[in-house]
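for the recovery benchmark. tokens below, seq after
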């Protein structure tokens, strides 16, 4: 289901949920929180812990990615719970975006380069061990692993690639959510890191 270009945010009666969390019928339900285009976020009751009077909520994006939020009834209020839930939605957008960035041609190219580089580093290590006539299998494997891992800087390159495009691939979703929830702080973070797309590496999906 797609809600269109106008973001929609629902008001959830958290007081009712917290007051009636032992009602079994509520545990079979879910409530819409925020939707924009094909991005839909829902909330459901997930668990309770009577030892500290806490209620666990599960926030899902399109029924797949999820994040848990705990509400401690003894020392937290509804306003604080809403902040936690909004934070969970924001984090789910981040997680979804990062997964999508890792599916781009640019990222896959880095992974391919990494595999080839590690083959070269492994052979270099083997050549050294052979020259030094080191035949113990355990020592050889330890040295090869250490040498390859030390030379391989592609994990850093891949993370830099993800960081560069973060808040850009789904920039519009971040902006609409932050505006809908009046979250100026997160909106500032998004806008500060927005550069408009393909100005560093080709990012074909």
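predicted aa per position
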């Amino acid at each position: 289901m797609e809600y269109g270009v106008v973001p929609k945010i629902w008001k959830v009666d958290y007081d009712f949920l917290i007051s009636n969390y032992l009602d079994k019928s509520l545990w079979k339900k879910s409530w819409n929180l925020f939707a924009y285009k094909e991005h839909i976020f829902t909330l459901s009751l997930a668990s309770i812990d009577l030892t500290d009077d806490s209620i666990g909520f599960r926030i899902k994006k399109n029924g797949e990615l999820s994040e848990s939020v705990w509400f401690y009834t003894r020392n937290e209020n509804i306003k604080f719970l809403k902040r936690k839930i909004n934070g969970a939605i924001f984090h789910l957008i981040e997680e979804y975006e990062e997964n999508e960035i890792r599916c781009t041609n640019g990222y896959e190219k880095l992974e391919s380069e990494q595999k080839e580089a590690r083959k070269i580093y492994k052979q270099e290590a083997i050549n050294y061990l052979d020259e030094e006539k080191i035949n113990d299998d355990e020592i050889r494997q330890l040295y090869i692993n250490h040498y390859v891992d030390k030379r391989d800087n592609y994990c850093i390159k891949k993370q830099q690639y993800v960081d560069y495009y973060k808040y850009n691939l789904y920039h519009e979703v971040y902006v609409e959510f932050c505006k809908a929830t009046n979250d100026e702080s997160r909106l500032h973070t998004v806008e500060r890191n927005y550069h408009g797309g393909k100005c560093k590496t080709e990012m074909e999906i």
